[in-house]
Amino acid sequence: MASQPSPYTISVPDTALDKLKRKLSDADYPDELDTPDQWPYGSPLTDIKRLAKYWETSFDWRGAETKLNELPNYRKKVAVDGFGDIDVHFVWKRSSNPDAIPLLFCHGWPGSFIEVTKLLPLLEAGSAAGKPAFHVVAPSLPNFGFSQRITAPGFALSQYAETCHRLMLDLGYSKYATQGGDWGFYITRTMGILYPSHVIASHINMVRANPPSFTSHPALALQHAITPYTPAESAGLKRSDWFLNHGQAYRQLQATKPQTLSYAFADSPVALLAWIYEKLVDWTDGYAWTDDEVLTWISIYWFSTAGPNAHVRIYYEAGHNPTEKIPGRERASEWVDGVKLGLAHFPRELSVVPRIWGRTLGK
């Protein structure tokens, strides 16, 4: 019998806060080149020094923690084949609307459950204009946030999908919709492949799709051949090329030798800050991050139940544990039958593909 969810309070020990401040006060910094534009080289020294000093001396984690604890936080054990019971943290916001749709909100890297916070009032309430209301379940994926660390190898896409699926079943939602971006794209697509009778609809951002071919999608391929790209689609392809050529070094490292990289994150809050801050800026559309927002985001990683380095392992495990149904993450970029599909195209995503490409994923 599945365990019942219990309310959860985020509470970082004072000793962990004191240790963070000591590490920040003792930090050494690299030099940088003499150029007015530091961003092509990575996180600028001026930004990182400012943020690290604020993190050490003025950032109010207890205030941020109190705000996070205003969310409906829960934990429960979820059974995953081959891995036993895994302790999963999740935000569970139930709507008063009797017709509300259960929605699994799945984050990616370097995200967390915090991504759902500004959306919760909109998703919970719906509207009188016919927009649906949702019961929102937003877990911390295992190895992220306040969920359990996985200590055995082989926890890959199928296991992340199983964790999310069984969590929804345990909460009484035998049929549900999903939303995913980044790793959430791959995990929720995997859920649609493995559990199509349960996933009623899948909404995704970061659309990872390929151009239609005449062998797999002849009608779409013909349409693709005769339809010119719009200016927005052409700009999107340039954005995608930028990521492939200039923005994915982190992915190569995390997917090949995650343990070596982990020493930096486990020991240095400045390293973790610089690594993730670069992505927060590069991957958003001119969003005006406040220092408090950045440091709340990074602190969730630094104070993670799994530790500040476990999060990178998803890249390696997803690429080294093929199964018959999920031979690799590329399977998520192929057709998924039986699950209604919704796509969101954003100009600063890592993959910004023409709309016809997106239609190769499903309907």
TrEMBL record:
Segment forming the signal sequence: none
Keyword entries, A-Z: Aromatic hydrocarbons catabolism, Hydrolase
InterPro entries in UniProt: AB_hydrolase_fold, Epox_hydrolase-like, Epoxide_hydro_N, Epoxide_hydrolase
Keyword Hydrolase: yes
Segments forming domain Epoxide hydrolase N-terminal: 6-116
The keyword DNA-binding is assigned to this record: no
Entry's Gene Ontology molecular function annotations: epoxide hydrolase activity
Any GO BP: epoxide metabolic process
Pfam family, one: EHN
Similarity field: Belongs to the peptidase S33 family.
Alphabetical list of PANTHER family matching this protein: EPOXIDE HYDROLASE, EPOXIDE HYDROLASE 1-RELATED
The protein's name: Epoxide hydrolase N-terminal domain-containing protein
Organism encoding this protein: Neocucurbitaria cava
